[in-house]
Structure formats: structure tokens, C-alpha cells
Amino acid sequence: MTNSKVNSEGLTLAEWQQGDEIETEIFDLTDDGDGVGRVGQRVVFVPDTAPGDRVRAKLTEVKSKLAHAKVLEVLEPSPHRIRPRCIVADKCGGCQWQHISEEFQLETKRQQVVQALSKIGGFAHPSVEPTLSTRNFLDYRNKASYPIGRSHRGQVQAGYYQRGSHRLINLNQCPIQDARFNPFLAEIKQDIQEQGWQVYHEDRHQGEVRHLSLRIGRRTGEILLTLVLRDDRLPGLEAQAQEWMKRYPDLVGVCINHNPDRTNVIFGKETRCLVGRDYIREEFAGLTFQIQSDTFFQVNTEQAEALLQEIEKELQLQGDETLLDAYCGIGTMTLPLARRVRQAVGLELQAESIRQAQKNARLNQIDNARFLVGAVERLLPKLDFSPEIVLLDPPRKGCERSVLETLLAIRPDRIVYVSCKPATLARDLKILCQGGQYRFVRAQPADFFPQTAHVECAAFLQAVY
To answer: Which of 14, 217, 425, 428 could form a disulfide with 222 if both were Cys (CB 3.0 to 4.6 A apart)?
Structure first.
């Protein structure tokens, strides 16, 4: 390892080593949020930078054509650089872009979609709208799950892991979470400390308390607290749960999730309610939803509602359509759209999510929606009807190839594809459109995760006859 400085012309590229210092100007951002610089012919990825920054950085990994580095000093700041609102923004892995202006974040996310559709999807000059934003750049997350740990002095900690590591950054507040979580974050740690409960150690697979998870109804203010435990029993836990219910007026329930596995997955398969109820109520798109601690609901309530409105505007529903919602979760999109169509059907792999969707349909007196449990690739070919509209909202990996082939076979009039990863969105749209059966209409990016590099997007396809 050396500490020599490599000049900006790249005259010693072959001699680059981990630990060397370089100077470079950042000209782009990766989909993961890192700044992109260049020294000679070699690309350098530098986190915590912005396009227009000129930085001095230390190489942390060197490969034949690229390198990774950490910034040591910003020599000339970018016009897009701002002061982060969080004092640990440069350490915590929860955000990547607090140092970048919100307006530039929005345009960068739009460009992520444009580039993916152009380079991966093969669409020439794709129509991509400006990124949809409710302007809630902070205080937006309705759910947070904090790993629990101990400091070297034995103090209970909770927060997020440092980027690229499992070193816990202790937090007492977080600017992107709903601010009503902050008292819980600060005080629950102290309660765990006073109870003497063992904190889980992932390397040794020992200890009990793994995560603190909080979920809130943004409109109702109801809060659900869940402790994720290696075992599902702790001495004094029920009495402590009763104390929490008395202390926090908005807390409607305390739950325990049992995760005995040696895994990085937060939630295990079993959740039980200790005190109160196992769900919060939330108002969404004019409906009331019951949401449990371990089932999926978009973390940005307001932005999800805004994207739903864009989908409704594009579809211009007349009331006589049949709609299929694949990967429907608890019916977040299915039920609001059901009010505007003749029939809506939701498909979802998770049985508990389907049970919640059915409860939410009854709660809102929606009787034209039905829900089926199973993998989309298995259920889709067996449908007993022909949907005119299909809404896709798959996980980050995108749709199985068989799902796309079935859609091409049944040929709904319109497809709405909601995605949280532009690369897999573009890949799947290419498959749907390359045979000429569908044409790409437009894409609507949405800022579901401000201060991060993640972008949600709805793409609209129309059948060609």
C-alpha cells in the first residue's frame, strides 16, 4: 500500500494502489447514488459527492478499468451541493443524497429512467415526465426498522448501519422518518437497557433483541411498535409493553416478531400481539386501511397517493372495465381503482397480505374486488376472465419471463407497470413491446424516497391492433 498522489492526467494509472490519493471532477451519479469521476481512462466511483464537485479522494478498491474511493476533501463544491440536514449523513447508510439539492435529485431520477429506457429498453427518445414530487423531502417515512446493538461500553444503541458495513450508527432522531418516531427511538433504547435484555449479536447468533420496528398512520397518527426477537419471550416484556401503551397515547399496539434464523432479513414468519391490536388504521385515497407491522405498504403515503392519481388520470376509467392487479399486496392500489371499474382482481403470493386485502375490502364496503393467493406466474394463465387493464407492481427483480409471455398471450388493452428499479422496468418493457403488440406511451417517475438514489416509476403501455 502507498500514500502517493496520482495526478489528474492519469500518468501512473498502471501503478494505482489501494490507499493512493487522487484528484478528480465528478460528472455523473450511479443508480446507487455514488459520484462518478474519471482519471485518465479509469472511472472512479466516489460516494458523498455531487456532479460538479472537484474532490481529493483515497482509493479503497482498484480494478483494471475502474476504482472506488472515499472523499477526503471537497476542493471545489458543486453548484448542486447543499448542507445535509442530518449530523451523521456522511456516516449513516440510510441516505445517500442529503448533500445534493432536492431539485437536482428530482432531475437525476428522471434521467435514471430515461437512460434505462434508452440503453436497456431500446426506446428512442422515450417520453418521461418530470419526477412527481409532493415536496416532502424530509419527515416522510411511515415505517422504520432499526437494528439494535450495544456500544463498546455496553450501552444499547439503535439506528442504521454505516454504508457498506454492519457498524451501527446510533441515532436518537432521523430527519427522513416521521418525526413522531423520535421519542420512541430515544426512549425504547433506555427501556431495553434498564430491563437488562440481551441484544442480538449477528456474528455469534446470540442474544434476543434484534430490531425495533415502528409503523404510523400518517393521517390517523396511530402507531404500532414491534420488537423483533430471536426467541419470542423476554422477562418482564408484557409489563413493559403495558407501560409503553400508557406512556404513548398514539400507540395502539405492541407486537413481537419471532425471527430465530441466522439471516439479514428483518422479520421472521411469526408475529403476535402482546397488548392492544396488531394493526394501525390509515386513510389512503379516500379509503380506510388496516395495516399490520410485517406486511408491505408504501413507506411514503403521500407520494403513493399522488402516483395513484397519475395512474387514474392516464387510464380515464369509465366504470365498465375489468382490472387485474398483479402483486397487489394488501390492496393499496386495487381497492381505490375498484371503485372506478366493473371488477378488480388482485394476485399476491403472501397469504397474510391477501387476508388483509379482503378485510380492507369489507371495511370499505367494496364488493367488486376479489383476491387470489399464489405466485403471479402460476395464477395468471389460469384466470377465468380476460382483463382489459393489468397493473403490475413486481419486486425489484421485475417480472418472471413467463408472466410477460402470458400477458402477450392474453393481450389486455392497457398495461400499467409500476417499478422501483429502472433497469428491470426497461428490460421487461422491451420484451412486451419488441414484437409490436404494445407501444410505450410514457413513463411517470415518482420520488418515493427523497434523499436517496431510489426512484419509483409508472410506465404506461397501449395494445396495438
So the answer is: 217
- Using alpha carbons only, give the angle 407, 435, 403 rounded to the nearest 5 degrees: 20
| Residue 239: other Cβ atoms inside 10 A | 10
**pLDDT per residue over 89-147, tens digit each?**
888 878 999 999 999 999 999 999 999 999 999 999 999 999 999 999 999 999 999 99
Q: Are 432 and 438 in contact (CB under 8 A)?
A: yes
Separation between Cα atoms, residue 226 and residue 279, nearest integer Å: 11
Between helix 102-119 and helix 422-433 the angle, nearest 10°, is 40
Residues 6 or more apart whose CB falls under 8 angstroms from that of 398 comprise 419, 421, 424, 425, 427, 428
Please give the grid coordinates belonging to residue 153: 461500553
Give me the pLDDT at residue 13, please.
Answer: 53
What totals of helices (H) and strands (E) does the chain contain, helices first? Answer: 9, 22
Closest CA to 448 of 310, 315, 320: 310
420 as an active site residue: the answer is yes
pLDDT, tens digit, 9 for 90 and up, residues 52-86 = 999 999 999 998 888 999 999 999 999 999 999 88
Q: Residue 38 pairs with which residues in a beta bridge?
A: 43
**Alpha-carbon dihedral sign for residues 294, 296, 297, 298:** positive
Query: Dihedral of CA 309/315/318/319: which sign?
Result: negative
Query: Coil, helix or strand for 179?
Result: helix
Distances (CA, A) of 403 to 331, 375, 420, 464: 20, 10, 18, 19
* Other Cβ atoms within 10 Å of 40 Cβ, number: 14
pTM above 0.90, yes or no: yes
Catalytic, out of 86, 420, 433, 457: 420
**Using CB atoms within 10 A of its CB, is residue 147 exposed (0-12), middle (13-18) or buried (19+)?**
buried
Task: Give me the mean pLDDT over the 227-232 stretch.
Answer: 92
> Which grid coordinates belong to 232?
419470542
The pLDDT value given to residue 3: 47
